[in-house]
Amino acid sequence: MLINFSFENFRSFKNSTELSLVSSSKIRKFKDHEVKSKRLSIIKNVGVFGKNASGKTNLISALTFAKSYICNSQILSNMSFKGAGDLPTSFNFVFTLGEDIYQYSFSIKRVGLLSIATVEKECLEKLQTNNSIEIYSKRSKINKSYDKEELFKTFLDGYKNSNSQLFLTYINAPERQIKGNKTSELFTEVFKFFRDRILILDSLSSFSYIGLTSSNSSVVSKYLTQFDTGMKCIEFRDISSEEVQKVIPREILVEIYNDMSSKPNLKESCVSNGVDIYSFVKSDNTIYCKKFQSYHKGIEEPFTLEEESEGTKRLINIITLLFSNQKDDTVYIIDEIEKSGHCMSVTNIIKEFQKLNLNKKNQLIFTSHHVDLMDEVLRQDEIYFTDKNYEGVSTVYPLSDFKSRNEPNVKKRYLEGRYGAIPVIGE
After folding, report:
1. What is the CA radius of gyration of the chain?
2. Is the pLDDT of residue 210 over 80?
3. How far apart are CA 334 and CA 201, in angstroms?
4. Is the separation of the CB atoms in 33 and 45 below 8 Å?
5. C-alpha–C-alpha distance, residues 252 and 248, integer Å
6. Residue ranges with strand state E in 128-260
7. Per-residue pLDDT tens for 74-95?
8. Which residue from 63, 43, 59 is spatially nearest to 397, judged by alpha carbons?
9. Rounded-to-integer distance, Cα 375 and Cα 170, Å
10. How far apart are the first and last CA of the chain?
11. Are 87 and 79 in contact (CB under 8 A)?
12. What is the spatial distance between Cα 323 and Cα 367, in angstroms, rounded to a whole number?
């Protein structure tokens, strides 16, 4: 589970900014929204509210950027706060792996106007009750108690001249993973936390469809019906290779076929061309292609994805992410969760997620303008605000900063301006 995320000098956030998921002992509402351990209690939900251009999307972008850099060493040319491009951008995560708590942090600095960066700092620590154990840092390298494998030492020596790639990324290349080695396996688990257990749906992408396949389309259909979208079901129909080649570039098809051919356990892969969704299914070493279509109540002819509304497409995205393949101990992050959707649908989706998550450790972090969610689906320690000052600097702060946090009707007090983070019309 994610316990804490903090960052500095990223886009509109100039100063150190923190999002804490440690629960408050004073909150009595929605006790099932927290997971208790021997050392602390962690909340399962965070809703972030604020006016337009206050920094909500940049908060999600910071999480997206950090994950992308860890997994792919990809950076954005405009990652720093305007005017602070010569300063490093820093990220820090505190999270659980099983019963243990770890802290992973790194700082990078963009090189000139190029889309490359140098790693200034990197550190992995195991946090204990009264102290912490530094496992790796760019300054002091690997902790001796974790470094007992000669091959691992060789990899560590090979990393010395790498300035633009994190050690966590470097050591998790397939050719550098050492089965049975304690240190290598720990770095693998940390890497998998970011790659597999932080799933992000931003507000700009209408065609990511994280996890949508022909095999789980029946689950997605169930929720599309439950949330009264007017759709009866979605499915994938077989299409010919000739039809596929007309709509998907050859180089992408070659990449898909090579990827599926080289991975025995990869049975299905979905891709979108921005108009439709195509599913590639492997059976008996042969790869077939299927195309998305949907059926609506009272209409016999199928619809293509292109014929669906933006709200329906967004809803398919969210349902697929949250319900199609429910995992445990996963962080789901959605920017503008109500975008193009009805407010009641969003409320019911969050309630359904919370119901399915009663005995699990999944977490949901979202941004929204739908203020009814404050009182309907969130504890008061699950509410955060974003605001921006006259210098253009964004801040994130919790409702718990205010003395009135235990009083009812948060929405009313927010709209009265008691917590800030609302537009001041006319100034």
Report:
1. 23
2. no
3. 5
4. yes
5. 7
6. 132-137, 141-142, 198-201, 231-239
7. 776 678 888 787 899 999 999 9
8. 59
9. 45
10. 42
11. no
12. 19
DSSP 84-133: -TTSPEEEEEEEEETTEEEEEEEEEEE-TTSS-EEEEEEEEEEE-SS-EE
Residue 79: name the closest of 96, 61, 93, 94 by CA.
61
- Name 83's Cβ contacts closer than 8 Å, sequence gap at least 6: none
297-341 pLDDT, tens digit per residue, is: 999 999 998 899 888 888 988 999 999 877 899 999 999 999 888
Q: Distances in Å between the alpha carbon of 386 and those of 79, 383, 401?
A: 19, 10, 13
Q: What angle do CA 304, 307, 311 make, to 5 degrees?
A: 115
- Model confidence, pTM: 0.93
Instruction: Label each residue of 228-265 as H, E or C.
Output: CCCEEEEEEEEECHHHHHHHCCHHHHHHHHHHHHHCCC
Residue with tokens 């009135």: 404
User: At 248, phi and psi to the nearest 5?
Assistant: -120, 125
Question: pLDDT of 296-305, one tens digit each?
Answer: 999 999 999 8
pLDDT one-digit tens code per residue, 237-249: 999 989 989 888 8
Give CA separation, 131 vs 21, 105, 178, in Å: 21, 17, 29
Q: What is the pLDDT of residues 271-295, one digit of tens each?
A: 887 788 899 999 888 999 999 999 9
Helices (H) and strands (E) in the chain, counts: 11, 19
Strands 89-97 and 286-296: unpaired
